[in-house]
């Protein structure tokens, strides 16, 4: 689930960079949160449900 969310946010972020249309810094904050969550899962060694 978390990987799907991270992929979706990354896709939206790239789309925003290409089209110069973003929701301000909101999408970047969501992307940063998703990356931090993935890194925490990798560091702790837990598998995503």
From TrEMBL:
InterPro entries: Lmo0937-like
Name used for this protein in its record: Lmo0937 family membrane protein
TM stretches of this protein: 26-44
Keywords from the named record: Membrane, Transmembrane, Transmembrane helix
Top-level taxon of the source organism: Bacteria
């Amino acid at each position: 689930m978390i990987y799907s969310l991270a992929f979706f946010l990354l896709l939206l972020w790239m789309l925003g960079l290409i089209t110069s249309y973003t929701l301000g810094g909101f999408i970047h904050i969501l992307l940063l949160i998703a990356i931090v969550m993935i890194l925490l899962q990798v560091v702790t060694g837990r598998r995503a449900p």
